[in-house]
Amino acid sequence: MFSNSELAPRWAGTSFESMLETLVEIAPFEGTPTDAIEDFTWSANAWSDGTLTLSEMACNRPWHISATSGTPEWLTVMVPRVGICGVTLGQSTATALPGQLLLGQTHEVDRFFAQGALHRSEKLHLDWSVILQTVGELLEAPVSGSLGLLPLVDQYSPSGDLLKNLVETIMSGMRGDGVLLHSPIAMTNLTQALSHLVVQSVPHRFSNQLEKKTFAPAPWHVRRAIDFMHANISKPITISMVAHAANVSVRTLENGFRMFRETTPAIYLRKLRLQATREDLIDPSNRQTIREICLKWGFFHAGRFSATYRSVYGETPQETHKRKHRNVL
């Protein structure tokens, strides 16, 4: 846990390189200043409970940074205090002024940048798995890949104002080794509230599906089938076995999944196994080869699996596996 009982900067320096080298303690990034580097000065602070991290940054030159293979997957909520915070995604750029919020997933954003002769900002970094879990719980289906969150939050909307107030509350409770870091239950509750508010109020690629989730909960046989899949995901189960466990016919199970999950039981099970494969690929303690991991989870056609994996996660299984080994070294 990062901690500091004082508000004075924990780190400070006089070069952009020293800033990147020092802040590896928070997370590794790569980047450059975008202005003259003479008389570059910076200071920073950070506090974390492991799931949510608050960082403070002040400097006197604009710069931009990008995630590396070792950068954690975070949802970063940027709150500029002086100057401008910005993100670049492909050909699009979004910026926020003081009083606004800007969102970015560390590995989806091409670069984060700061502008202004003087710059000071605070950032909340939330473990991305919490966001994916929240979306999955609301959709009642496994979720993977990019969410495509809209970066700039509408500060004039009721939900945008609520999100801004919640972010400020969490920051004030963490800043200076604040009371939230010593209140695990309160911290967990606020973290979950932040995740749900982001998912339900900020537009993303699942927003339309969430809006349609106003019908009744899935019937018991669909829920029982999903529970059976989760409990037996590592076993060679078939859809007929799933239907038998749910005490319905395969046709009834298919219709239930199409109506209440907008997918089929087979696709749902394949998504669960694809997620399990990725978890093994990024697990530093797992010494199995890529082929062994794929076979373990029922993927026999290497080329087809690689194409599916890349379409979902934006990288090949080999790239994921190599990144794991680089992080261990």
Q: TL;DR of this structure?
A:
The protein has 329 residues and is of the alpha+beta class. Helices cover 42% and strands 21% of the residues.
- Which overall shape is indicated by the principal axes computed on the Cα atoms? globular
Tell me how many strands there are: 9
Radius of gyration: 22 Å
What number is the mean pLDDT?
A: 87
Fraction of residues in helix: 40-55%
Order of helices and strands: EHEEEEEEEEHHHHHHHHHHH
Task: Tell me the span between the first and last alpha carbons.
Answer: 22 Å
What can be said about the biggest beta sheet? 9 strands, antiparallel
Strand content is 15-25%
**Strand pairing plus helix content: what structural class?**
alpha+beta
Number of helices: 12
Q: Unreliable stretches, pLDDT < 50, 5 or more residues?
A: 1-6
Question: Could you describe the 3D structure shown?
Answer:
The chain has helices spanning 16-22, 128-139, 158-174, 184-201, 207-211, 220-231, 239-246, 250-260, 265-282, 290-296, 302-313, 317-328, and strands at 11-13, 29-33, 42-48, 52-59, 63-67, 74-89, 92-96, 102-105, 111-127. Helix 2 (128-139) crosses helix 4, helix 3 (158-174) runs antiparallel to helix 4 (184-201) and helix 6 crosses helix 7 (239-246). The two termini are 22 Å apart. Strands 1, 2, 3, 4, 5, 6, 7, 8 and 9 form a nine-stranded antiparallel sheet that branches. The longest helix is centred in the middle third of the chain and has 18 residues, at 184-201. By secondary structure, it is of the alpha+beta class.
